[in-house]
Write a structure and sequence with these properties.
alpha/beta; 4-stranded parallel beta sheet; Rossmann fold
Length: 138
């Protein structure tokens, strides 16, 4: 049932084309893990190639390593290539006076952009829930 809703939304908004290669940003949270599984379920229908991208921002060292392991293990289980980016956002010169969350977002998107070129991918897929928009505004 959920898969059918997702497929209808993909079709309605022309989100995917046959043969697309996607970078899938997976944090290890519920929203991005569900996205990974839904896209994996769509792989055959849309002839998709998926690449999982996980970013460790260096905010929570012990927890972040466990999240990375979880995402890497799930990627291997699904037979999807895994890319890992580890950054220390707080000490990065790219922050330029930004809040830590804004700096992390910029570093993350730069990483995704590099992966788009490396894998010749067409799109980046990110999972979000309703609270993410509120956090961005705040």
């Amino acid at each position: 049932m959920l898969f059918d809703r997702v497929k209808r939304t993909i079709d309605r908004y022309c989100l995917l084309e046959k043969g697309d290669r996607l970078i899938v940003g997976v944090s290890g949270g519920v929203d991005s893990m569900v996205l990974l599984h839904l896209l994996n379920a769509c792989r055959e229908t849309f002839d998709l190639s998926l690449i999982v991208a996980h970013v460790n921002h260096g905010f929570r060292p012990a927890e972040s390593e466990k999240e990375a392991e979880l995402v890497q293990e799930e990627s291997a289980r699904l037979r999807v290539p895994f890319e890992y980016g580890k950054f220390n956002v707080r000490s990065s010169k790219k922050t330029g006076g930004l809040s830590p969350q804004d700096a992390a977002r910029r570093i993350r998107f730069h990483f995704f952009d590099d992966l788009l070129r490396k894998h010749r991918a067409q799109k980046v897929a990110l999972g979000h829930h309703a609270d993410d928009q509120v956090e961005t505004i705040l």
